[in-house]
Structure formats: structure tokens, C-alpha cells
Design goal:
heterodimer, A: alpha/beta, TIM Barrel, 8-stranded parallel β-barrel, 36% helix, globular, B: mainly alpha, 3-stranded antiparallel beta sheet, two-stranded antiparallel sheet, 6 strands, 44% helix, elongated
Chain lengths: 304, 259
């Protein structure tokens, strides 16, 4: 039995896809493939988790090729462990570069988080303290990723449930400095902002006012779930298992008004609904994007 | 090289993720002096539940056989004992069949580990490299006197799982939701797992078939593989076995002599 090893894509040249403009996209889920292919190509784009396409062959690549034929794709890495103290996994970075070469995604992103420690992979986006040392470490890792893919990475702000006692700077200061030092772009997850603001008792609007919006190349919107902390107060969980909350829609409109339209993704990873439900969420985001489209510009890329 | 002292947060944060007895790490807190307990538990829960879910996705027939509660309890032990070492979750769970074979509460289902092995082979075939299978015409074109030295190159998706139990029948009956009838678990069954194109197919190999296919897939010539198969089962039928393997897409090409 051959285990799944990614084919050697190191010789495939890196090509850039056209920029997307202010369009809304959705997560691509294989259960929606037939529904998507049975209609004419959609406006917008599809985002995939890179790791799901790191097998050597088989149906996942067939599905992504079919989607990519008529639509722009956004490649969203989940497991690079950019925020972790140990060196990046070179084999994983090579696989990531291989996917960028093969599918020529319009957007490429990863998380400000870590998921591997020593040899264990924890399959979660774990938090890090914000200090001078972690800042240097994160910048080094982003430099390596950008060297490998030869384009700016979009770095996503996390949702968190705890804070580190040793943190010496705010999350927005940390992210702004990373972007300035590495030249990376940012993926602003507005649900993550809302979740973290609730969990840590800060104002989401203040956070957004402090966030370097000019560097934002993509926005994520998703649903969250509610739990309670040790004191019985509301603790929000970044669950990606339902519709976008009203409060998050309001923050989104404020950001678009301030920033101008940027590609926006509806993320839905668990309790996945029928395709029309996801489509309707994307249409709601598109309506907001269209409302703030700069006059005289029709800059987005239609798929047809 | 160990990380610089200022980067020790991961070493402090990680150990309690898979150990429910440990308290939340002292380096974290909630806002305004709030306790970190239930907050840190969100990470513990995300890690454990998502890895149990990953095993459930790889081993759906095992879960159907045992029931969800039994499966998740068993998987929780395995996840805590053997977390993944790769960020590719479709590579996870290779040690799970051996874990099941030793799991105290699964001893009354001695065939369960073999069903798990078939499910693991199924996922390997699903993600294996794509390759065009050998066509019957290519084999038919070989001169009869050269057949004994013929070597068949295995397809990347092809695999064999041997069982002393009716693992193929039990696997097939539990991979969908239709009712399962009575199965005589004591009948030994060997599985051939292939994916010639889109769909992974699991076949039950005839007597001697596993010895034959294993020899061929390890690069032994056809004559030698047939002799091993006859040693394993006197009723082994060469023609139907070779035809069956080629129709299943177990090989991609032919060669001669040792390769």
C-alpha cells in the first residue's frame, strides 16, 4: 500500500490569478459539488482548506479541478503552525507551495496560531502570547512562507478564549507590525473579532478602528456558538456551524464602508447546510459589497 | 535547537490539551482576573473532539458496529495515547486497528480490528496517486512462454488486507445504512482494495488469492506467485485470479524478470 504522498510540484512555475475585487465567495464542500456544477458558473469564488488537498490523487483533486475550471479559488492553510516556536515543517511548506503552483489561487492565507508542538499535531488553532520574541518568530515564519510561494500571504486574526500573562502588546499592534515587517496582507475574520471581543471584554469597534484595514485582502464571516465561562458569563465559540450573526453583519458593513469592497468569504465548516442556504449567505454579503462599490468601477471578475 | 526561553509558551500550553487531569496552564488567564478553566477547556474540547471526529470519518463501519458511544469512548483513549504526528488528518489512525485489537472492551468482536484495517486501506486508496490500470489486452499480447517471468507493477491505490474472520462481508454490510443480516463471522476473508478511477472498490479474494496478489504486488514473477498461491490453497485457480486482479485495476503495467 502506497501512502498518500503529494506529487512533486517543485518544478511547476508559480502563476498568479487575476485579482478578485469586491466579490463574495463560500467555503467549497464536496457535498455541494454536484449542485455547483449543475448550474452555470457563479460570480464569486470558492475557498478550500489546503490540507484537504494534500493527498497524491483521487476524488478530492478531481473535485477541486472541476471547481477551478470555472471559478477562482482561495487557498486557506490551517496547519502551518506559523505562530508556534518550532521551525516550520519543510515538507508541509513544500506541499503548500505545490498546491499554489497547481491551482493558481487568487488568494492564499494562513492563521496567526499554532497547531503542532514537538511531534504532536493538535488539529486546532492554538493561541500565542504577543511579545517581542513571538513577533520575531512569526515574522521569520511568514518570510519563509512568502519565499516559498513568492507572493504575499494573507494572515488571519485569531479567535481566542484565553489571554497570556506575558503578552506585552495588543493583538492589533502585533498584527500591524507583522504586516509592516513582512509585507504580508491580512485576512480580517470579523466573526473572530466579535468572538474575541466578547470573550475578553473589549470593544469590537475599537479593535476594528485599530486594525490596519488598508492591508486587508480578504474578509471572513462565519457563525459562532454560545457557552459560559467559569463565572457563568457568555463565552463565544468560533464554531463555523451556522449563519452569520446579526452583530457580525453590522460590523462587516461598517468595515466595508470604511475599507471599500474586498473579497469576502462565508465560512461554514460543520453542520453543513444545503447549497442554496450557503449561497444565500454569500448573496447577503454581495449585496453589502455592491452597496459600497466605488462609483464608476466594475472591477470584479465575473467567472463566465 | 530548543526555542529561546521567551518562546516556551507552547511547551507550557500543550501538555494539558490531551490530559484532562492537568489543570489549565498557569501562563494563561481570562480577562480581569477571571479563571482560565472553562476557557482553556474550549481548546481541550476542540482538540479531542475534532480528532475523535477524524477517526469516526475514517472508520464509519467500525462506528456503526460498536455504536457511537462505544466508538467515541474507544477513540478518546486512542487520541490521548496516540495523537497525530502529521497535519494531514487523512493519514491519521494507522495505529487504530492495532489499538482496537488490544482494546479490552472490544475483545468480544475479534474481527473488529480487521474491519478497521480494511477501512484504513480504503482511505489510502481514495487519496492514492491516480494511474491508468493495466488493460487485459496488454496481458493477452504476452507470448505464453514468457508468462512465467511476467512481473506486474502494482497500482498506487491497490492494497490487500487478510483476515481470519469474515471482515469483508462485515465491512461491506456496515459501510452504508441498510439493515445488516446475520453474518457467519468465522469464515476467513481476504480483501483486495483498489481504485481504478473514481470509486474505491473492496473485493473478497478467492482461496489463495491473497497469497497470489501479495506476491505479485511485492514484485515476484507470475510463475512464482502462482506456486505460492497453490501452496496456500490447493483449489487456487490461476486464470480466474489473474483476470479478477486485472479487472479490479490492481496493476498499471507489465515487465519481465526481477524489477
Amino acid at each position: 500500500m502506497t501512502t498518500a504522498i503529494a506529487p512533486d510540484m517543485s518544478a511547476v512555475p508559480l502563476r498568479y490569478s487575476a485579482s478578485l475585487g469586491g466579490v463574495a465567495g463560500t467555503s467549497f464542500k464536496p457535498e455541494h459539488l454536484q449542485a455547483i456544477l449543475s448550474t452555470k458558473p457563479q460570480r464569486g469564488f470558492f475557498e478550500v482548506h489546503a490540507e484537504n488537498y494534500m493527498g497524491a490523487g483521487g476524488p478530492p483533486h478531481r473535485a477541486l479541478e472541476a471547481i477551478r475550471r470555472d471559478h477562482p479559488v482561495s487557498l486557506h492553510g490551517v496547519c502551518m503552525s506559523i505562530g508556534g516556536p518550532q521551525p516550520l515543517d519543510k515538507a508541509h511548506l513544500a506541499r503548500f507551495r505545490g498546491l499554489v503552483a497547481r491551482y493558481q489561487p487568487a488568494l492564499v492565507s494562513e492563521h496567526l496560531a499554532w497547531s503542532t508542538h514537538e511531534t504532536s499535531f493538535f488539529n486546532d488553532l492554538l493561541p500565542l502570547p504577543y511579545t517581542a520574541a513571538t513577533l520575531r518568530n512569526v515574522c521569520d515564519h511568514i518570510d519563509q512562507v512568502q519565499d516559498a510561494i513568492r507572493r504575499p500571504l494573507l494572515l488571519e486574526n485569531p479567535s481566542t478564549y484565553v489571554a497570556f500573562r506575558e503578552s506585552s502588546m495588543s493583538e492589533t499592534d502585533f498584527i500591524r507590525t507583522v504586516a509592516e515587517r513582512t509585507g504580508c496582507g491580512l485576512l480580517l475574520d470579523i466573526n473572530n473579532v466579535f468572538v474575541s471581543a466578547t470573550n475578553h471584554g473589549f470593544s469590537a469597534l475599537d479593535y476594528l478602528a485599530d486594525f490596519p484595514l488598508s492591508r486587508v485582502g480578504e474578509i471572513h464571516l462565519a457563525g459562532h456558538a454560545e457557552q459560559a465561562d467559569d463565572e457563568g458569563d457568555l463565552l463565544l465559540i468560533d464554531s463555523h456551524d451556522g449563519p452569520v450573526a446579526d452583530a457580525v453583519w453590522k460590523l462587516y458593513e461598517i468595515v466595508i464602508q470604511r475599507r471599500a469592497p474586498v473579497p469576502t468569504l462565508i465560512e461554514w465548516d460543520s453542520k453543513i447546510p444545503d447549497w442554496p442556504v450557503l449561497q444565500a449567505e454569500a448573496a447577503a454579503a454581495q449585496a453589502i459589497l455592491d452597496r459600497y462599490r466605488p462609483v464608476g468601477l466594475t472591477g470584479d471578475r465575473h467567472a463566465a | 535547537m530548543p526555542p529561546e526561553p521567551d518562546l516556551c509558551f507552547a511547551a507550557a500550553f500543550a501538555p494539558a490539551l490531551l490530559d484532562p487531569v492537568r489543570p489549565a496552564p498557569e501562563i494563561v488567564a481570562g480577562p480581569n482576573g477571571k479563571a482560565p478553566g472553562k476557557r482553556y477547556d474550549v481548546y481541550r474540547n476542540n482538540v479531542t473532539v475534532s480528532l475523535i471526529d477524524a477517526l469516526a470519518a475514517i472508520y464509519p463501519a467500525v462506528q456503526r458496529i460498536t455504536g457511537t458511544d462505544f466508538f467515541r469512548a474507544m477513540a478518546r483513549f486512542h487520541v490521548r495515547q496516540t495523537p497525530p504526528i502529521s497535519p494531514l488528518l487523512f493519514d491519521y489512525g494507522r495505529d487504530f486497528p492495532v489499538f482496537i485489537a488490544q482494546y479490552e472492551h472490544a475483545q468480544m468482536m475479534p474481527w473488529l480490528a480487521d474491519v478497521a484495517s480494511i477501512e484504513r486501506a480504503w482511505l489510502d486508496a481514495y487519496h492514492a496517486a491516480d494511474a491508468a490500470p493495466l488493460s487485459p489486452a496488454q496481458l493477452a499480447a504476452v507470448a505464453p512462454e514468457r508468462l512465467g517471468d511476467l512481473v506486474l507493477i502494482p497500482h498506487p491505490a491497490a492494497g490487500i488486507v487478510r483476515s481470519q474472520f469474515a471482515a469483508v462481508t462485515i465491512f461491506a454490510a456496515n459501510r452504508d445504512t441498510s439493515p445488516v443480516g446475520r453474518i457467519d463471522a468465522a469464515t476467513p476473508e481476504d480483501a483486495l482494495v483498489t481504485r481504478a478511477e473514481f470509486d474505491v472498490v473492496v473485493r473478497h479474494l478467492p482461496p489463495g488469492g491473497a497469497a497470489f496478489a501479495s506476491s505479485l504486488m511485492s514484485g515476484r514473477p507470475l510463475g512464482e506467485a502462482a506456486a505460492r498461491a497453490l501452496d496456500a490453497a490447493a483449489e487456487f485457480d490461476l486464470a480466474s485470479n489473474i483476470t479478477g486482479l486485472i479487472e479490479a485495476g490492481a496493476f498499471t503495467s507489465i515487465a519481465f524478470g526481477d524489477v
